[in-house]
Specification:
The protein is α+β, with helices and mostly antiparallel strands. The protein is built from 8 helices and 9 strands. The chain has a 5-stranded antiparallel sheet with strand order 5-9-8-7-6. A 4-stranded antiparallel sheet has the order 1-2-4-3, with helices on both faces.
């Protein structure tokens, strides 16, 4: 398996590494992502020991993976193998910062990453870049992160598929970038919420199961899963987190609020 350095992974243990704005402006997208995300996540979880890692998606090379992970790629299309490999490389870099030695990160039958005991995390990627956040559990119960390209949704049909009637009524009169770009931000938030929700609950969500309110500063949000059956069983149904746009990408991370 190739080393982290050979695979261009940028990683940071929050609180241990700082990136300056000037360095970001002259540096690569991975370091710019870390520079933007680290202070946001640290503001929400100041006492947590978290690791962030990001890397470009490279052409698929089996040497990027451990043997057990290579077996998981059978049947995947070429692009999926590439994004899967980048995600696993980022996860390994993040776990290394948390003191975990190299070991395969396998997945459940539904595709959920099987984090080592006592740890949790979230993996996301576009076709061009992968992003991972990981931390100790406890104290962290679950976390979700999502990254997408900073482009509008394709159509009003997609906007209505993602947005609830309540959200449509509360859209700003003139959202930054227009309604379809605003809808893309909702999509990223709901994906982050789902990635925090599913590991804790084990049930799928539809886009219309979640109502999101983006704060006026466009940097944070509140989300609620409106399914009474889950709340009655003590599962998390309220989430909050941060939202940012950096290097041509929209990124959101979500955390559960107290039940």
């Amino acid at each position: 398996m190739r080393s982290t350095e050979e695979c261009s992974v940028a990683a940071s243990l929050l609180g241990a590494t700082e990136f300056s704005a000037s360095a970001c402006n002259a540096d690569s997208t991975p370091n710019c992502l870390l520079a933007s995300l680290a202070p946001l996540i640290r503001a929400w979880l100041p006492e947590q020991r978290l690791a962030l890692a990001t890397a470009p998606v490279l052409p698929y090379d089996p040497s990027m993976l451990l043997p057990a992970e290579q077996g998981l790629t059978h049947g995947m299309r070429t692009r999926r193998r590439s994004t899967f490999s980048a995600g696993r490389q980022c996860a390994r870099a993040a776990l290394s910062l948390l003191g975990v030695g190299p070991s395969p990160l396998l997945m459940s039958p539904t595709g959920l990453p099987l984090w080592p005991s006592g740890l949790t995390g979230s993996i996301s990627h576009t076709n061009h870049i992968a992003l991972v956040v990981a931390g100790h559990a406890p104290p962290l119960s679950t976390i979700g992160i999502d990254i997408e390209e900073d482009t509008p949704l394709d159509s009003d049909t997609m906007l209505h598929l993602i947005s609830t009637p309540k959200e449509m009524l509360t859209f700003p009169p003139a959202p930054p970038g227009g309604r379809l770009l605003f809808g893309k931000h909702l999509f990223v938030i709901k994906e982050a919420v789902y990635k925090a929700f599913y590991p804790a609950v084990g049930e799928f969500l539809d886009f219309h199961d979640v109502d999101v309110k983006i704060n006026t500063n466009f940097k944070s949000f509140y989300a609620e899963v409106h399914r009474v059956d889950l709340q009655d069983r003590g599962f998390p149904v309220r989430f909050a987190g941060a939202l940012t746009t950096v290097s041509g990408h929209i990124v959101a991370f979500a955390l559960p609020l107290a039940v």
